[in-house]
Structure formats: C-alpha cells, structure tokens
Amino acid sequence: MRVPERTAAVLAWARRNLFSSPLNALLTLLGLWLLWLVVPPLLQWLWLQADFVGSSREDCRGDGACWVFVRVHLDQFLYGFYPPAERWRVNLGIALLLVPALPLLIPPLRRFRRVWLLALLAYPPVAWWLFHGGLGLSVVDTGLWGGLFLTLVIAATGMAAALPLGLLLALGRRSRLPVVRATATVFIEFWRGVPLITVLFMASVMLPLFLPSGLSLDKLLRALIGVALFAGAYMAEVIRGGLQGVPAGQYEAAQALGLSYWQQMRLVIVPQALRMVVPGIVNVFIALFKETSLVLIIGLFDLLGVVQAAVTNPDWLGFVLEGYVFAAAVFWAFCYGMSRISRRLERRPDMKAQEQQEMA
After folding, report:
1. CB-based contact 302:293 (threshold 8 Å)
2. Residue 54: count of CB within 10 angstroms of its CB
3. Is the dihedral of CA 256, 258, 261, 266 positive or negative?
4. What is the full per-residue pLDDT of the chain (360 aa) written as tens digits?
C-alpha cells in the first residue's frame, strides 16, 4: 500500500528532526511524556471543567477555573475606574488610533503617506480631548484612568516619543561636535543606568519639588515623561547600531551628490538604518509595553494593577490565578501582535528588491 505524499513528507521530517539519533529520539519521547503530563490537566482546568456563566462566586462549582471572576470584572480590567457613561470616548479614541496605521495594513494606501503622517501628528491632542475632556466634554480625572486603557496610553505614548527622541540621540552621539556628542552620551548612559521603577518614583515624588511654586504636573503626565525619556535612551542605542551598520559607501555616495548633512540622514542613511534594526526597535516596544505594569508603584492602576485590586476584593478571594492568567494572555496577545508586525516590516524590503530584480 502506497503512503500518501503528505504523510510521507511528515514522516521524513520527523525522522530527520526528531529521531535522527538515539539521543534525539530519547529527548523527543521525553518531551512527549512531559506534554502528556502538563497539557491534559491544563486543558481540564482552563476549559473542560471551568465555569463561564454566572455573576457571583457561588456560580463557580467546578474544579476548573472560574472565568466568572473575569467576566464580572471585565469592564474594570478594560477601563479601570473610568465612568461607564463616558467609556464611548475611550472606544472612539482607540478606534481613531487605527486610522494612521492603515498604510501599514493596506499597501495601496502607502502612496498617501503624508496625509497619514498629518493624521498621526493630529492624533495626540484629539485623544487627550476625548480621554480627559473639556470643550464640551465632561472632565475625567486621570486618577480614574486604569486597566488595559491606561496600559495602552502609557505604552503608545512612550513608543511614539521614544522613536524620534532615540533617533536624535543616536545622531547626536555620532556627531562630530564634541559638545553635542558628550551631551547625548551623558543623557543615554544616565537613563540606561537607572531602573525604570526609580525613574517613575523620581518623576512622581521628586520632580514636583523642582517645579516653580504654584505649578504642578499631573501624575500621569509625569509618568509619561519618565517613560518616554527612559525608552528614548534605549532606542538611541538600537538606532545607533543601525547607523553604524550602514556601509561607508552610502555616506560617501550621499556626500558626492552634494546633499547636506540633514538631507543625507533623511534621504539615504536613516531609512536604511531603521530597516536594519526593525527587530531591535520592536524589542524595545515590547519591553516597554510589559514594563508599564511598574506604574502601580506611583498609584496608577494599569491592567495588572486593576487585576491585583480585584483579587483582593473580599467577595472574590481565592481567584488570583484566573486574574493573572487573563492579564498574561492579554500581554502575550499584544506582544505577539507587535512581533508579527515586525516580521512583516522585515520582509517588505526583500520583497521590493525581488520585484526590482524581476523588472530588470
């Protein structure tokens, strides 16, 4: 009897990768045994014996996870303590954030990149107006912001500020002017040598002491400034690695064309450098997204902080694991999404080069 081609290919792959030697075969069998010990009980707890429907802890009668806890607190996990009647503003603001990202998702829209750039520049004041209020909208104090909404606000602001700041710092560190180079180097090394938790603590407690009398900054704004400066320093080193990776011939060719320094950077050097360090840039973004949970130390309740507050509710004691599993799943989903976007951006230059070769 002839084995189907697909089955034969699978068997050949398994023989080549899993059973190529006695040691590999032993490790494969050991791995399968460990999966058998872990996966079935995990599925039993997560799904088969879990409780999904209900409104109180009395509805959790099974031996598995009580997802009723997550269902009851889902709005709090997403919006924190934002007033329920005003949550449409959060939904609208997050939906508008997707508009400047359309060129990354829909290739035909890339030709209108200037329009999308203007939309991206106009987004921060519009988002602040929607989230905070004023000019016809009721004011919602930032102390009520929380949950996944606050996590996205801190992460998105840090990412948006870190990239241009890191680019300027990287160019400054490679500058021929001693003062500019020394200033950029001191700034980068200072912020890279201080833990983020210390930065947040200093921004929340110490920064107000240096402000003029009568001037105060919102706690969230102070945290955003600290996160942006911290992430910008790390981003600068990533971009500097890309600038150093650009061949010297590219610099010489740009100079031969008679371009000024800023024209060389904008048209020739920086685009190549950024394409080379896309994985490093996304790695900084992913780390920043996960480190937003540290804002809990200054009294801001992000997703993880709201989950911790919910599990201490006397009516829901004992469901810590469900809350942390939910938070971990959300963080993983966002980080995995950024990783996939990174891989897509990495492949784009190769696809363009292949198209040019085919046309030639």
Report:
1. yes
2. 16
3. negative
4. 555 667 777 788 888 888 888 889 899 999 999 999 999 999 999 998 999 998 888 888 878 999 999 999 999 999 999 999 999 999 999 988 877 666 666 767 667 667 667 777 888 899 999 999 988 899 999 989 999 999 999 999 999 999 999 999 999 999 999 999 999 999 999 999 999 999 998 888 887 777 777 777 888 998 999 999 999 999 999 999 999 999 989 989 999 988 998 999 999 999 999 989 999 999 999 999 999 999 998 889 999 999 999 999 888 888 999 999 999 999 999 999 999 888 887 776 544 444 344 333
Backbone angles phi, psi at 53, to 5 degrees: -110, 135
Coil/strand/helix, residue 62: coil
Give the largest Cα separation in the chain, rounded.
Answer: 89
In the chain, domain spans: 68-82+140-359
The amino acid that residue 322 corresponds to is E
Q: How far is CA 283 from CA 54, 189, 240, 304, in A?
A: 40, 19, 15, 21
Q: Count other C-beta atoms under 10 Å from residue 313's C-beta.
A: 13
**Domain spanning 68-82+140-359 has what CATH number?**
1.10.3720.10
The pTM score is 0.87
* Residue in the structure block whose two tokens are 């989903």: 333
Residue type, 185: T
| Structural contact between residues 180 and 251, judged by C-beta atoms closer than 8 angstroms | no
User: Tokens 């002017």 appear where?
Assistant: 177
Whether 173 contacts 119, CB under 8 Å: no
Q: What gap in Å lies between CA 83 and CA 99, rounded to an integer?
A: 25
